[in-house]
């Protein structure tokens, strides 16, 4: 059986096929899917993030790492999401305008689904107008926004302002997250909540929904 350490290394190498093989092997070996995500896949992306920041890795390499992480997530997703099928409320989630980072958002979606929430994932580069459209169409209890760039964080504020202008703000709770986002920022833009990770985001939604 493969080990979580090997999996972490394969994410760092951006080796999609190896990641898939190792995740399958870990699943077959009975390893908890949440451990596969936290101690295998995310652990790898943490190393990648540090190397990218230090200038030791470049965008194409990071993209391969992200793809390998995504391929691994896809394999564990059904195992985590199917644990609890009871529907406890609805969340519309997206990565804000001009931001293409989706690994964290996908992880948050996955955890929310595993927590019994219905999640409508409207993707990346989501403009305030698209969030509004989704709120009108799906009538969620919570709107979740993810941003990974300091330059795209203001789009969260724009979206909240548009919700207000369109008379929808009091119909939904808004939560925000992503590496550069903080509680202080969330409060300053009038969001209802901030979550530093996927598990906290899920708990926060359940708290709002009363699930
Ligand atoms: Co980009 N990137 N990137 N990148 N990238 C960062 C974010 C950066 C910090 C790296 C660095 O330089 N140190 C930096 C931003 C600097 C800044 O703004 N301060 C950066 C940059 C500069 C860029 C480009 C501009 C690079 C370029 O082109 N020169 C470019 C921008 C593209 C764009 O969006 N317009 C770019 C591109 C990319 C790739 C495409 C190569 C790739 C993204 C692939 C993809 O997502 N499909 C990529 C990646 C992978 C990263 C790093 C290395 C890793 C991000 C990640 O996936 N982390 C990142 C460095 C880093 O963060 N250390 C970096 C793993 C993920 C599980 O964590 O997303 O934080 P995270 O999600 C967490 C929590 O934040 C939270 O829960 C998650 C799970 O615990 N969370 C929420 C997230 N969303 C939430 C929502 C919630 C609640 C919690 O409620 C709704």
β-strand amount: 5-15%
CATH fold-level label of the largest domain: Rossmann fold
What best-fitting shape do the alpha-carbon axes yield?
globular
The description of the largest β-sheet is:
5 strands, parallel
CATH architecture field of the largest domain: 3-Layer(aba) Sandwich
- List the helices and strands in order: HHHHEHEHEHEHEH
| Total helical segments | 9
What's the overall average pLDDT, rounded?
Answer: 92
* Top-tier CATH class of the largest domain: Alpha Beta
Task: Tell me the layout of helices and strands.
Layout: H1 4-13, H2 16-28, H3 33-53, H4 59-81, E1 90-95, H5 103-114, E2 118-121, H6 128-138, E3 142-146, H7 154-165, E4 173-177, H8 183-188, E5 193-194, H9 198-209
Parallel strand pairs: 1-2, 1-3, 3-4, 4-5
Helix pairs in contact: 1-2, 1-3, 1-4, 2-4, 3-4, 4-5, 5-9, 6-7
Describe the protein.
One of its GO terms (biological process) is homocysteine metabolic process. With 211 residues, this protein is an alpha/beta fold. The chain folds into two domains: 4-84, Methionine synthase domain (Methyltransferase, Methionine Synthase (B12-binding Domains), Chain A, domain 1); 90-209, Cobalamin-binding domain (Rossmann fold). It is 57% helix and 10% strand. It contains nine helices and five strands; from the N terminus they run ααααβαβαβαβαβα. A five-stranded parallel beta sheet has the order 2-1-3-4-5, sandwiched between helices. Helix 1 runs parallel beside helix 3 (33-53). The model has no long low-confidence stretch (mean pLDDT 92). The structure holds CO-5-methoxybenzimidazolylcobamide. Residues 42, 45, 48-49, 52-53, 59, 62-63, 66, 93, 98-105, 107-108, 144-146, 148-151, 175-180, 195, 197-198, 201 line the site of CO-5-methoxybenzimidazolylcobamide.
């Amino acid at each position: 059986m493969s080990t979580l350490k090997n999996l972490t290394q394969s994410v760092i190498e951006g080796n999609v096929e190896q990641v898939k093989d190792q995740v399958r092997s870990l699943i077959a070996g009975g390893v908890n899917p949440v451990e596969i995500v936290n101690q295998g896949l995310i652990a790898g992306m943490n190393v990648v993030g540090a190397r990218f920041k230090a200038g030791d890795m470049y965008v194409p390499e990071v993209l391969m790492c992200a793809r390998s992480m995504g391929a691994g997530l896809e394999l564990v997703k059904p195992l985590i999401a199917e644990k609890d099928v009871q529907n406890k409320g609805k969340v519309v989630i997206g990565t804000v305008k001009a931001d293409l980072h989706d690994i964290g958002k996908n992880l948050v979606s996955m955890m929310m689904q595993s927590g019994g929430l219905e999640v409508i994932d409207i993707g990346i580069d989501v403009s305030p107008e698209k969030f509004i459209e989704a709120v009108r169409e799906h009538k969620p209890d919570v709107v979740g926004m993810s941003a990974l760039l300091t330059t795209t964080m203001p789009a969260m504020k724009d979206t909240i302002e548009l919700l207000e202008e369109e008379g929808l703000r009091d119909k939904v709770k808004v939560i925000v997250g992503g590496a550069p986002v903080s509680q202080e920022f969330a409060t300053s833009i009038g969001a209802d909540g901030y979550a530093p990770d996927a598990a906290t985001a899920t708990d926060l939604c359940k708290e709002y929904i009363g699930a």
